[in-house]
Amino acid sequence: MLGAVDTAVMGHLPDPAYVGGVAIGSMIFSFLYWGFGFLRMGTTGFVAQARGREDGDEIRAILARALIVGLAAAFLLMITQYPLRLAAVGIVEAAPDVEIFASAYFDTRIWGAPATLANYAVLGWLLGMQYARAALAIQIVINGLNAGLDIWFVTELGWGVEGVALATAIAQYTGALLGLSLIALRLKSIDGIWSRKRILNLTELGALFRVSRDIFLRTLAMIFAWSLLTWMGARLGTTVLAANALLMNFQSFLAHGLDGFAHATSALVGEAVGARNRRALRSTVIAATFMAAGVALAYTLVYGLFGSNLLALLTDIPELRAFAGDHLIWMAVSPILSVWAYQLDGIFIGATRAGEMRNAMLVSVAIYAAAMFTLPGYLGNHGLWASVMLFMVVRALTLLALYPRVERMMAESEQTADTAA
């Protein structure tokens, strides 16, 4: 929603360069922030397993470790922001006016780094503890505030690109403060204490490092894949770049909707792993996958029937609506092709099998990149989106091939527990 609102506000300004600038600026922050997605994914898996073991001390320690790592990373990003921005904008090679808007967006939004990365840790902890309503409340506050500030800053105060970036940063800080407050309230009903010795335990820190390293590499590969779409679109012109930015909102809505089931799956799978309960693992996987598939079908119907209407909400620039509208067929087929990858991600996150996730993603990105540099020569921008669909299918197939390892891990865990008993 944050990116969609930013894009929609820019999409109603007279020049497509505004949309392109925000698209590139958002892409840059995808690299900077999503690279630390392990703060969310790793935290969810570890907390869910600690919950399954009923280990209150470790539940607190995991949150502390994630916040420390997140704040340290944010500080590093802020002190290196100038060379990061120069390098990132230079790599994209967009039109000069688009680069100016992208730089302005970056220079403002970077100051929200501490809150953004803290929110990753907060969200991961809440989902791992199965406090999904609290996580939802935080996202509603962040998105509602961002939307209101976007409209005020841009349409009333005329702050343009800097206004949407500032709105996003303010909303993230508000969400972080709310999230930490809700966690403090929840912890009052959970047994355990804050232990510096537990937080700095070398064994647990080593496990966090290994999982974080693998998820970090996997996330960087995935971000590269999505950014390649933006980069290739920029080479085809500002109109293509802006239209693809609009279409990416359809994919983002889909991704975050299906991620709801993936998050639930990761929390319940993690709890099953912590409790060494293979039956609970299987029932979670089956139930969540059936529900996610149903929601994916609903997305396909909505995008197929109302895609043009949704596109009109994002922009009133005729050339963008016409060009993006020619590619809505890809948005309609995306849900039924993408759902399986998101569900399998949730399973592997809950089981903290980050190494398999990394390997599957590297293979998928290699195949995707080959398609990206081949298909557009024959199909133009349709070739870019055909490559994206191939990417989603390969992601699912590679993870599915590795799923038996999760079952073997659970079987070994149950056997160990039976022997100990």
How is this structure best described in words?
This protein has 421 residues and is mainly α. The chain is 88% helix and 0% strand. The chain is built from 19 helices and no strands. The chain has helices spanning 2-11, 16-34, 38-53, 56-79, 81-92, 96-109, 113-128, 132-156, 160-187, 196-199, 202-235, 238-275, 278-314, 318-325, 328-350, 354-372, 376-379, 381-402, 404-420. Helix 12 (238-275) runs antiparallel to helix 13. The longest helix is centred in the middle third of the chain and has 38 residues, at 238-275. The protein is globular and about 65 Å long. The termini are far apart. The model has no long low-confidence stretch (mean pLDDT 86).
For this entry, give a set of tags.
globular, single chain, 19 helices, 421 residues, mainly alpha
SSE layout:
Elements: H1 2-11, H2 16-34, H3 38-53, H4 56-79, H5 81-92, H6 96-109, H7 113-128, H8 132-156, H9 160-187, H10 196-199, H11 202-235, H12 238-275, H13 278-314, H14 318-325, H15 328-350, H16 354-372, H17 376-379, H18 381-402, H19 404-420
Helix pairs in contact: 1-2, 1-8, 1-9, 1-12, 2-6, 2-11, 2-12, 3-4, 3-7, 3-11, 3-12, 4-7, 5-6, 6-9, 7-9, 8-9, 11-12, 11-16, 11-18, 12-13, 12-14, 12-15, 13-15, 15-18, 16-18
What is the count of DSSP helices, taking H or I runs of 4+ residues? 19
Largest sheet: none
Shape: globular
User: What is the number of strand segments?
Assistant: 0
Radius of gyration (Å): 21 Å
How many angstroms separate the termini? Answer: 49 Å
Short description:
This protein has 421 residues and is mainly alpha-helical.
